[in-house]
């Protein structure tokens, strides 16, 4: 389903279109959490109504290692796709974000401030679907991390493994491809491109 072509209903609270993505701190964005590390169901915001809906059961025993959601008022369109690989289109969804935090976040549909430190250059069915990695703003354990190289490699490996496996189905080709990882500078370029894609689509 091409989410970017659906008309949202502006009189309803809508986390994709009704929350400002920027904060007062450079490099820090607002993130809407759809899935926690305890969810065996993949939840996703419905693009028309803004309600959190069941997308599918998790396809295997691997669960997301950290809270996972998206940055409001972003869109993975052509500019974002070109940041991942020249000539590739984005998947038409909001820009995904994973948030590292010391304390457990046990419920979804929460909004938090997160500081971007890097990301994965990811494709889904041949379309760009990058995943940004961030730390919870003000977190006592992760708060001093500045770039992806500061994050323990084992945690990044777990995140990458989750995204490599989360859409695997028996007898079908895996639609997900991870081309590599990126540092904070590249992740910020992805963010800026997705903000421009959103403005072009919805302004």
Could you explain how this protein is built, in words?
- There is one protein chain.
- By secondary structure, the chain is α+β, with helices and mostly antiparallel strands.
- The protein has a single domain, classed as Inorganic pyrophosphatase (Inorganic Pyrophosphatase), CATH 3.90.80.
- 19% of the residues lie in helices and 29% in strands.
- The strands form 2 sheets. The chain has a 5-stranded mixed barrel with strand order 1-4-5-8-6. The chain has a two-stranded antiparallel sheet with strand order 2-3.
- Strand 2 (41-45) and strand 3 (52-57) form a beta hairpin.
- Helix 1 (78-84) packs antiparallel against helix 3.
- Its cofactor is Mg(2+).
- InterPro entries: Pyrophosphatase, Pyrophosphatase_sf.
SSE topology sketch:
Layout: E1 28-35, E2 41-45, E3 52-57, E4 68-71, H1 78-84, E5 95-100, E6 110-124, E7 127-128, E8 131-136, H2 153-165, E9 176-182, H3 184-202
Parallel strand pairs: 5-8
Antiparallel strand pairs: 1-4, 1-6, 2-3, 4-5, 6-7, 6-8, 6-9
At the fourth level of CATH, the homologous superfamily is Inorganic pyrophosphatase
Give the termini separation. 21 Å
Sheet with the most strands? 5 strands, mixed, barrel
Portion in helices: 10-25%
Overall 3D shape: globular
Please tally the β strands and state the result: 9
Number of helices: 3
Q: Which parts are unreliable, with pLDDT below 50 for 5 consecutive residues or more?
A: none
What is the CATH top level name?
Alpha Beta
Q: What is the CATH architecture descriptor?
A: Alpha-Beta Complex
Q: Strand content of the residues, in percent?
A: 25-35%
Question: How many distinct folded domains?
Answer: 1
Structural class: alpha+beta
Strand order of the largest sheet: 1-4-5-8-6
Average of pLDDT? 90
What do we call the CATH topology? Inorganic Pyrophosphatase
| Cα Rg | 16 Å
How do the SSEs run, as a string of H and E? EEEEHEEEEHEH
Protein name: inorganic diphosphatase
GO biological process, one term: phosphate-containing compound metabolic process
Keywords: Hydrolase, Magnesium, Metal-binding
InterPro entries: Pyrophosphatase, Pyrophosphatase_sf
